[in-house]
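Per your request, structure below.
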C-alpha cells in the first residue's frame, strides 16, 4: 500500500468548476522510469479545450471518462474519442478536449521507461496517440474496473505499482548505446551535438538516428529540441521576477532570441508571452 502520508492533494474551485489532483511517488524500482502518479478529477460547467505543449515524456492516461486528443501538426495524432491511451513523443503541441467532466490517472514515463514498460518499440508511437487497448498485454477494462472500485487513491496507486513492476520484470532492455545517448541529452537539456553522440557510441550518425528513433520515438535532434524547450519553460516558470527573453534563450542554449521564438511557437503553438500570460493567470492553457 502506498503510504497516505506520501500523497499530495490539491483542490481548486472557481465559478467555472472544480479540480482535484492527487500526487504520489511510484515504487522505488520505478522511480527512474516514471514520474509521480497523478490522480485527477475535474468537473466544469462547460466543455474544455486545452493546449498541451511538447514534452520529453511519454504520457499514459488511464481514464474513467471519454476525451479527445489531437494535433493540427501530426495527422496520426488523432485516435478519436478515447478513455485510456498513450501519447508518444511529439515535437508540436496537442489539443485535449472533453465535455466538462474528466477523471483518471496520468503517468509520465521517460522514453526509456516507456520502452521497458509498454511492450513495443517507441518508433511506433512517435507523433501518435494510441488506445491503450491496442498495445500488447494491456487489459484496459480490468485495469479501469480495479482502479474505479478501489476505496481510495493510495490503493489505486499501489495497484499501479503492482502492474508496472510486473511489466518491468518482463520488459525489454534498451541498448547501452541508446541509453548513453539519452542520458547525455537529458543531462545537458539537449545541448549536445549529434556528432558527439555518435562518437560516444561508435556508431555512424545514420545508424544512431535509426536505433535511437526506434527505441525513443523521435530522432536525437528532435529530442534535443524538445529537451532544450523544456529547459526554457523551467527557466520561465521559475523566474521571480520574470527574466528577459534574451537571457532565457541564451541559458537554454538557443543561438539567439529569434531562434528561441521560432522553436517556442512550433513546440507550444503560441509565443512565449502568450504562454507565460496564461501560466501567470493560473488558468488552464487553452488553445
Amino acid at each position: 500500500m502506498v503510504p497516505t502520508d506520501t500523497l499530495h492533494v490539491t483542490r481548486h474551485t472557481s465559478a467555472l468548476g472544480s479540480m482535484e489532483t492527487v500526487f504520489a511517488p511510484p515504487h522505488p524500482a520505478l522511480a527512474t522510469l516514471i514520474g509521480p502518479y497523478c490522480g485527477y478529477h475535474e468537473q466544469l460547467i462547460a466543455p474544455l479545450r486545452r493546449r498541451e505543449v511538447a514534452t520529453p515524456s511519454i504520457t499514459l492516461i488511464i481514464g474513467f471518462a471519454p476525451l479527445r486528443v489531437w494535433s493540427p501538426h501530426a495527422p496520426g495524432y488523432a485516435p478519436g474519442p478515447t478513455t485510456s491511451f498513450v501519447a508518444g513523443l511529439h515535437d508540436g503541441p496537442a489539443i485535449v478536449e472533453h465535455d466538462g467532466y474528466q477523471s483518471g490517472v496520468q503517468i509520465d514515463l521517460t522514453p526509456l521507461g516507456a520502452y521497458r514498460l509498454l511492450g513495443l518499440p517507441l518508433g511506433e508511437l512517435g507523433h501518435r496517440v494510441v488506445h491503450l487497448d491496442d498495445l500488447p498485454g494491456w487489459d484496459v477494462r480490468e485495469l479501469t474496473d480495479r482502479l474505479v472500485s478501489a476505496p481510495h487513491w493510495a490503493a489505486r496507486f499501489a495497484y499501479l505499482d503492482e502492474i508496472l513492476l510486473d511489466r518491468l520484470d518482463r520488459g525489454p532492455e534498451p541498448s547501452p548505446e541508446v541509453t548513453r545517448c539519452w542520458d547525455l541529452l537529458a543531462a545537458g537539456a539537449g545541448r549536445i551535438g549529434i556528432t558527439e553522440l555518435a562518437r560516444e557510441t561508435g556508431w555512424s550518425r545514420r545508424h544512431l538516428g535509426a536505433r535511437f528513433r526506434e527505441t525513443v520515438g523521435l530522432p536525437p535532434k528532435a529530442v534535443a529540441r524538445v529537451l532544450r524547450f523544456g529547459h526554457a519553460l523551467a527557466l520561465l516558470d521559475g523566474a521571480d521576477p520574470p527574466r528577459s527573453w534574451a537571457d532565457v534563450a541564451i541559458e537554454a542554449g538557443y543561438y539567439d532570441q529569434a531562434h528561441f521564438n521560432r522553436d517556442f511557437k512550433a513546440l507550444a503553438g503560441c509565443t512565449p508571452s502568450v504562454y507565460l500570460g496564461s501560466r501567470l493567470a493560473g488558468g488552464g492553457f487553452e488553445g
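The radius of gyration is 19 Å.

Regards,
D.
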